[in-house]
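ARCHIVE CARD
Drawer: 12
Card no.: 0347
Subject: one protein chain, sequence and derived structure
Cross-reference: see card 0346
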Amino acid sequence: MLFERLLDNLALLKLQSAIANAGSFNVGIGLVAVIATAIAVDYAHMLYLRSRMPPGPFPWPIVGNTFTLPDTKPWLYFEELSKKYKTPLITFWIGR
C-alpha cells in the first residue's frame, strides 16, 4: 500500500515536471486544441443525429436553437416552424 502511494506520487511528480518543462503557453495551446476538437466532434455527432430526425431549424454548436426560442408564446413559433417545414413534427434543439 505504501509502495502504491509512492508510485502515485512519483507519477504526479513526473506529470508536474513535464508540464513545467513544456511551458504554460504550449500547455494552453494544447488545452485549446483539445477543447476545440471535443466541440467539433460533438457538433458532428449532433449533425449526424439531426439527419436521422424530423426536420427543423439548423442548430448552433452547444446551445442548439435556444436563442431562437421566443420569450412569450413559443407555441406560435413552433406552429410557424411546422408550417415552414410542412410537417406536424419538428426537431428543436435546446442545448446539448
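Annotation on reverse: DSSP finds three helices and no strands in the chain. The mean pLDDT is 86.
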